[in-house]
Design a protein that fits this description.
Strands 6-5-4-7-8-10-9 form a seven-stranded mixed β-sheet, with helices on both faces. A three-stranded antiparallel β-sheet has the order 1-3-2. The longest helix is centred in the N-terminal third of the chain and has 29 residues. The chain contains 19 helices and ten strands. Bound molecules: S-adenosylmethionine. S-adenosylmethionine binds next to helix 12.
Length: 395
Amino acid sequence: MTKPMNLDGMPNGLMEVTTWQDRLLQWLERLYASPKLYQWSLSNPLTRWITKRRTQQIFDLMSGFVYSQVLLGCVRLDLFKMLYQRPLDLQQIALQTKLSEQALQRLLLSAVSLGLLERRSQQRFGLGALGVPLAMHPGIGAMVEHNHLLYRDMQDPLGFLNNAWLGTMADYWPYAHDEQAAERAAQDKFSRYSDLMASSQEFVVQEILGSYYFDEHSCVMDVGAGKGRFASELALHAPHLKLQLFDLPPVLELAKATFQSKGLLDRLTLSPGNFLHDTLPQGADLVTLVRVAHDHPDEVVQQLLQKIHDALPVGGTLLLAEPMAQSQSQSAYGPQQTDAYFHFYLLAMGAGRLRTPEELMQMMSKAGFVVIEKLPNNMPIHAQILLGRKDKCLP
Ligand SMILES: C[S@@+](CC[C@H](N)C(=O)[O-])C[C@H]1O[C@@H](n2cnc3c(N)ncnc32)[C@H](O)[C@@H]1O
């Protein structure tokens, strides 16, 4: 169904443990498992915090589903927007949400314990530090609501690993696992996922616009442009640019409306098509590929990178941005929990997978790109950014 992850360098269960690091880690594993060490570390003020933190982390893993349901409950009641207006007490919130005070109180206290809400004077509730972004950015609430589909599909995690595409998420993304499904899909399916992508794209747009200077370019083609949110914000950010959008025909209809509403139609060229079997149009000196590669299997991504390379002029640039997996060198600084989310999300969605920056850079190199680099950006949790150039010295 999906290509196995690249596990190069990972210890093979059948192989003998040979390196000194493996031996050290195995020794530490045995040490951590010792009940005596547990008792000792709790009694020692210097190490107590480490053991307490580990225990809390295990508790969080076990109860994560409850946390996300508390969040979903608050989103569905629109509590964040409500309490952003002004703090309210239990009675006032019950009146607005039409829930009994008794039931509501559990939700509110749980949300307080998670930092989503906060207790205020006169028995009122206000926004907690984690509730503020939810009040300000509707895209986060939209993703919380959308994740409900994923969690429904994942109720039996092992059954899900074998039959991921039988769930509701696969149906939500018509193009991601079966080309015929995309051809059969009605317009409302394209609008539904394009709306979600546009509302969740805000943070990715900020990362790209804050990390790369577009001055040297004159025309940008956004491949898999969706509703055109990134491209239209780029057009406002860099008024000298012309924009070319490539996506499936029903999606580009929506992008046109976005550009029209922002008065940017005169700088726009629409190129409807399917990158599985169409070539990409020429004319742009920068191609952007934002949250597209991870939706597709390796063969499709390799082919797409090749088509982008072919469409660019010599010296042209590819900018690829999407959430990426933690590479082995990064894992020395501790695990990156967002990887777990994307591994499962992309499986539920279709045939794509989360790749490390190094894997994507290798694929870019295979397609002919040179001077490939990773741009530093502030919030890699939203997206990491890779750049590659089409060599000026072509054979
Ligand atoms: C996950 S969305 C990302 C949209 C946008 N770049 C963003 O970050 O919000 C992937 C986009 O790729 C488009 N896409 C998927 N398969 C495609 C194909 N075979 N040809 C053209 N576009 C495709 C989808 O229609 C969708 O708009």
